[in-house]
Structures are given as C-alpha cells and as structure tokens.
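Sharing a chain and its predicted structure for anyone who wants a worked example. Both blocks are below, sequence first, tokens second.
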Amino acid sequence: MTKTALRKRLLAILAVCLVLLAAGCGAIEAKRIEIMERERDVGEGYLASRNIPRAIFHLKQAQEACPKEPSVYFDLGLAFQAKGEPDKAVSYFEKAVKLRSNYSEAYLQLGNLAFDRKAYTKALGYYEKALENEVYTTPHFAHFNIARVHHEQKSFYKAEKEYAQAIRLVPDYSDAHYFMGVLFLDRGEPENAKKSLDKAILYGQPYPRAKMTLGKVYLELGQREKAARALKECLRERPPEDVKNEANRLLRLLGESP
C-alpha cells in the first residue's frame, strides 16, 4: 500500500471514529438532559406542595446533571426563598440571569427580595430589567411591583400609572385593584378607593384584607353601618392575624361586637 493510500485510509478511519465519538457524546448529553428534566419536574412538584427539603434534594440532582440549565437555578432560588434563606435565593437567581440574560421571572424575584429589604432603587432596576424582554409573558407582575416601589416612596402619581398599566394588561388583577384602592385612601380619595376595593373583592374572593380596608373607607365616608358590615364579612373569611386584629379594633371603635 502506498503512503498516499495509507494516509487516506487512516483519515477515513479517523473520520469514522469522530462520528462515533460525536454520536456517543450526543447520547450522553441527551441522557443528562433527560435526568435533569426528570429531577427538575419532581423537584417542582415538591416545591408546589411546600415540601422544601425534598424539592431542594431533587433540584440539586438536576443541577448536577446539567450545571448550565438556568431554570434549575431559578427553581432553587424559589426553594430557598420559601425556606427563608433570602441570601441563598439571591445567589441562585443571579446565576439564572447570568446563564439567561433575559430571564424576566428571575429578575422579578430578585426585585421582590430587594423590595423586602427596602432596597427600593435596586428593586426598581430589577423590575425594569424584567420588562426589557419583549416576549415576557406576564409583564403585569413587573408593572405591579414597580407601582409598589413608587407607592412605598410616596410617588403616588407614578404608582397610579403603573397600577393602571397592570390592570390594563390583566383587568381582573385583584391585587392591583386592591393596592390602587389603598393608594387612593392614602391620597385622601375615599370614593375612588371604594371603587377599586369593590373590584378587588369582586375578582379576588375571598379577600378579607380588601374587606377590612373597605371598612376603613366607609368609616372615612361616615357610613358606619356599611363599615361594620364590611368588617364582619372580613372576619367571617378567617383573615390572617394582623387583619383580624385591625378589623376587631375598628369594630370596637364603632361600638360593635365581632
């Protein structure tokens, strides 16, 4: 066999080996993705049922299978957020947006964690980053949270504009109607507050917090019977402790028993 023929044969064998190697690598990668998806789905199921330790266990398995899958880091962020470990949650959300720069849902959660720390400027930046993604499917959440930042900062006009945008996108968004009502109440506009709270209650049943706030509005309007009715309806809906205590306080002011 001549040198030229030998060289051609060796090259042909090498090409076959490379094809087989690529096929083998492809099969391994497909298996890793299959494991990641299975473990992630199980982890998300545990996360939905609030079994946080099991969720973290399975999501860590998913992370090990595919270390560069951003959705796994997002889910781990949610898990540690639910576990009450915000610093760990932040680190996972940051990893998610590093791997997927337009990951709006992760930016939203980073904004929420900053909001909880009262780091309002930082929160606003994250929410605005979420809106940069033109295919973000739930932008009403970002507009709502931007409104909450402006509301906390007493920038009532800006807050009203963002609440209104969230409602335009999702007309039955009960929380946006509720906080719009709170905004109007804070601004000394009880009639407008009542209209927004009525919509919050309509779309968000049961909504004891909205009914307690509606009781405050009726007090502002001097409509004591309606105030008492709203507050008693609030208590019938088994509200959280802070809402229950405030409703009882207001009823005592009205000379009513719960």
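Comments welcome. The CA atoms of residues 13 and 180 lie 72 Å apart.
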